């Protein structure tokens, strides 16, 4: 009997249930997948708490890696026995499971040299990092980036990628230990937001100019400081809302603070085109396979411990990537 984590109502981590499930045979366009490792992402908490509304009952999780064990009619992009990974949104919800049915379209064949565990830890984070570094802003050597949550999964990938491109990265962290991790993975400077004024410190580090771009995955508690850290005509990329969504913003504020730009991108819109998705995946997996970017898996959980995993994630106890090992 397969196992899965499901929820019957929106709420805190305690709403998650570890249950027996029937999987069945794949229908047209589907595959049956046996998971080896499953990704734990902050976005999972948005599905759980109702920020992203989905019909109940619902599966949990949108990223995993495993082996194709059966294919349905019309499936041509993968075959039985293929090692695959995936991430997505509603179309991949249900990753917290030992086996599942899933549409074949989102599946990505795993390159040689990438383990299941690495894939589960990096597919969403890696593709997110790829579109941030390659699609959002035309980064060039010498640019400066303020990176919130620099010791998190996306943060560690982005900081390493930015270093490869010659970008100065100022990373925000909450503890000295996280500062050490961020510095070891490409950050030039760190700011401990627990006791430092982020915008003031950014101005000091940039000789009063500010940064070209801010990647802000925290949201409500940081967005104003992010705006105040930008140089004239700089770009704020609100890529998450760990502290809650940004409140309604008066556009005139952007003009007052220096003709600033602001965007709220979503991964789904950057991997909707199969060709673009393949290009981004090839680049990030290539960096990892060749050792230019290292994926730090610092937390391993059993699937039955999903409640604790979500508690750890929301209390900011985690660093790097977290996965469930099946």
TrEMBL record:
Name of one Pfam family that matches: ADH_N
Spell out the Gene3D superfamilies in the cross-references. Medium-chain alcohol dehydrogenases, catalytic domain (3.90.180.10), NAD(P)-binding Rossmann-like Domain (3.40.50.720)
Question: Which residue range or ranges hold the Enoyl reductase (ER) domain?
Answer: 11-324
Keywords on record: NADP, Oxidoreductase
Which InterPro entries does the UniProt record give?
ADH-like_C, ADH-like_N, ER, GroES-like_sf, NAD(P)-bd_dom_sf, QOR-like, Quin_OxRdtase/zeta-crystal_CS
**This protein is called what?**
Quinone oxidoreductase
- In its UniProt entry, the species of origin is given as Variovorax robiniae
